[in-house]
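can u pls check wat happens w/ 2-acetamido-2-deoxy-beta-D-glucopyranose
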Amino acid sequence: MKLFILFSLILIINSADIQTCLCSNLQTQYDCENAVKFQVASQDLFDLKLCIWNQGQCLDLLKDVQIPCSTLEQQICGNLPSCAWYNGSCQTFTKCSDYKFDKNILSQSCDELNCLDNGTTCSFDRIGRGEQSCEEIAFEEDCQRMYLLYKKTICNWNGSACVGQSLSSCSSLTEKQCLQVNAQCAWRNNSCVKRTCEDGQYSSQVQEGVKLCSSYLDIENDQVMYCELSEEGQCVTSDPEQLDRKNCYSQSFQQYTWYPEDQECQKCQ
Ligand SMILES: *[C@@H]1O[C@H](CO)[C@@H](O)[C@H](O)[C@H]1NC(C)=O
Ligand SMILES: *[C@@H]1O[C@H](CO)[C@@H](O)[C@H](O)[C@H]1NC(C)=O
Ligand SMILES: *[C@@H]1O[C@H](CO)[C@@H](O)[C@H](O)[C@H]1NC(C)=O
Ligand SMILES: *[C@@H]1O[C@H](CO)[C@@H](O)[C@H](O)[C@H]1NC(C)=O
């Protein structure tokens, strides 16, 4: 009996392992160059890819090409999430906590490396190059904004530290937590319930108060739910195959990409 329970648990965990388009699937410069941005915006960090457009092809910085970071100038270095400008030279990015800066430039410098800071070093990888955990977050303000969608883990401030709590539904959440998990939940009629397209989502990346019409994962069955902005400006359920060039990849939870030859939005793989 115990074995069976363990086995089902493993199955449940694996079922949330969402596959997204590979860099090599992305046929347009627009989809390729915005891949990281779109993944981070929809918190779709199941398998982060660092895509780069090169001579008409979309390559994966982590798999297809070894970027010699050490030869790069500061500006190019700063734009490549696989490199880090540190100590006056460009180095291969390792992990956030390897980077330490003077107090007065710490926060901004960590931000430029796509990390948060903990007051002493950089910590917590904002774009998921390494494993993210709530426990790495040192400040209440950062903690209370964070939801790790791909782990279904909400970060809670316990008075002195940031601690992760894994979720399997929305129902137990307070109004404040419900808003923090608005990638999957919505506060309606004084309770926290599963999100729909109509609820929209506030992005942690975008200016406060701006509501996005992102596609999302159903918190209970881990299915991708596709949404799009209607002509009337409402966020509604969508058929990803009907998405246009600009919205195909970004609005499909990175499951579909635009094929310029066919002028169609098609599922990857
Ligand atoms: C940074 O530079 C200092 C002084 O040159 C050196 O001691 C230190 O090892 C360097 N650190 C890294 C990570 O390159
Ligand atoms: C910040 O992170 C570093 C590296 O993980 C750790 O050694 C240090 O104790 C942390 N400091 C605080 C204040 O959390
Ligand atoms: C908060 O969490 C930290 C780390 O788990 C723990 O050491 C601490 O005792 C907790 N504080 C409270 C007030 O629960
Ligand atoms: C809100 O809850 C009340 C009491 O449970 C119920 O009567 C009402 O129909 C609900 N409204 C909506 C919009 O679900």
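The chain is about 20% helix and 25% strand.
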